[in-house]
Specification:
Pnp Oxidase, Chain A; 6-stranded antiparallel beta barrel; about 55% strand; globular; mainly beta; 7 strands; about 120 residues
Length: about 120
């Protein structure tokens, strides 16, 4: 299911899946327009995705987001290989660069989502 809006609403099964947190892959746009994809640990509060990391402000993903806040993040897993069963959520949105007590973090405001296998 694909939703494109200023306010993405997550279905219950999507929210439960994302609420587990864990590892995701985040894609940012480099200055030359090429994608940069890296794994991140994330949290989900029911509306936004959050991630931080060691020395975050010095990372290429953070520097890319300072120039261009467009971001995509995929959370997925393999339930079974025989039979093949996968599930996941892709979110595209706008990254907000924030800080708490001097520690930077990123909050992603979802603008579009696609889910499968949930």
């Amino acid at each position: 299911m694909k939703v494109l809006t200023d306010s993405v609403v997550f279905k219950e099964e999507e929210a439960l899946f994302l609420s587990r947190g864990g590892l995701a892959r985040v894609a940012t746009v480099s200055p030359d327009g090429s994608p940069h994809v890296v794994p991140v640990a994330f949290e989900f509060d029911g509306q936004h995705i959050y991630f931080s990391g060691w020395n975050l402000a010095r990372t290429l993903k953070f520097q890319n987001l300072e120039r261009n806040p467009s971001v995509a993040i995929v959370v997925d897993d393999v339930i079974s290989v025989s039979p093949w069963r996968v599930r996941g959520v892709e979110i595209r949105g706008i990254a907000e660069l924030l800080a708490q007590d001097g520690h930077p973090y990123v909050r992603i405001k979802p603008m579009m989502k696609v889910s499968w296998g949930l």
